[in-house]
Amino acid sequence: MKLDRLQPRNLAGNPRASLPAWLKYRDMLISAYRQHPRPYVYRPINMAPISVVSRARDAMRGCLTFRYPIEHDDISHEDLMRWYSEVIFKFDDEQVYIGTSEKVNSVLTGTESVSDSTLRFTTLELEDITAFEVLLSRGRLVGPIMIQRPPDLTLLPTRENVERLNRPDGSLVLI
After folding, report:
1. Which residues are registered as beta bridge partners of 40?
2. 67 φ/ψ sector (left φ>0, alpha ψ -120 to 50, else beta)
3. Distances (CA, A) of 124 to 25, 46, 67, 83, 139
4. Which of 68, 106, 146, 150 has a C-alpha 20 to 30 A away from that of 170?
5. What distance in Å separates the CA atoms of residue 15 and residue 22, rounded to the nearest whole number?
6. In 3-state terms, the chain is what percent helix, strand and coil (to 5)?
7. Torsion angle of C-alpha atoms 128, 72, 80, 63, degrees rounded to 10
8. By three-state DSSP, how is residue 171 classified?
9. What does the DSSP 8-state code read for residue 9?
């Protein structure tokens, strides 16, 4: 059982199970958690999917073992532990898949499709982003929505069920 491997002595020297590693992969893993039981599909840009899977898995193990901050009031370490015990991490040449074994394997074998429903925009006005966030928060729209050059969002209130993922390249992803 993979929860049995969450031992501090096994992870203490692993830099991929450190707090900085957790912070790097936290948003992706929380997004996968929130999408459960639907399989989460992620297409890495600057790293091979095999590397993302290995590092994200270790970061998750580090968070659960050392109880790193989650920074989402509605999610506890116990919630993440329960989710982590139910999911697998897989990859192909282009994408990372996180979900139950049955769902991920059905996507990989083609018996269930997961379309790339990502909406992409070069830029949007604050009113446009507000509209997308309202639709996302009410479940009327499924993300992700990518904005290459987002405006300053500090004036916008945060919305329930919407995550804003600021990427290193300056783009924004709404899920």
Report:
1. 98
2. left
3. 26, 24, 37, 34, 21
4. 68
5. 10
6. 45, 15, 40
7. 110
8. coil
9. H
Question: Hey, what's the torsion of the CAs at 151, 73, 137, 95, to 10 degrees?
Answer: 80
For residue 44, give the H/E element and its range. none
Give the pair of three-digit tokens for residue 166.
């600021």
Place of tokens 């074994």: 101
Residue 168 in contact with residue 161, Cβ under 8 Å?
no
pTM of this structure? 0.64
Write b or e for each residue in 84-99: b if 16 or more Cβ atoms lie within 10 A of its Cβ, otherwise e. beebbbbbeeebbbbb
